[in-house]
Amino acid sequence: MNTIEEKLWNYIDGTCTLAEQDAIARLIEEDDLYKQKYTELLALNQEFADMELDEPSMAFSYNVMEAIRAEQLVPLKSTINKKIILGIAAFFVLSILALFAIVLSSIQISGNLFSGLDVKLPANLKLPAANDIFNSTVVKSFFVFDVILALFLTDSYLRRKKAAKEA
Prior knowledge:
Elements: H1 3-13, H2 18-30, H3 32-50, H4 58-70, H5 76-79, H6 82-106, H7 130-133, H8 136-166
Helix pairs in contact: 1-3, 2-3
């Protein structure tokens, strides 16, 4: 493309500055070569504007949409590692069972509730004192954490249940 055609295309498209537009308009009026090229390019531009754009057929659009639907979507459930969830659950269950065992071992029973029961522990077995291991702050914070976790899990369960009903 030479500079005459570039200038005229910029003039036709309206992408040149005002000073360039004035200069090109003067050249079109005065110069026959510019006038001839301008009329040719204007006619070509009009033909381009009159052309219909090709559109894909309806079958093509349908086939593309079917191909998208046929793709295997990976659900979120399969991306979560179930071993991690089971490990976390096992940790909390074992923590609660250990706390329960320590609490039961520190209970002193008086009276004749188990008078017929004679339990003999080995002499070398020493249970740790619950007062040394768990003070009241640690136990309270553990239970607060468990309550918050239970509320969070209940909330997520109820949200999933609500979303399943809406879908």
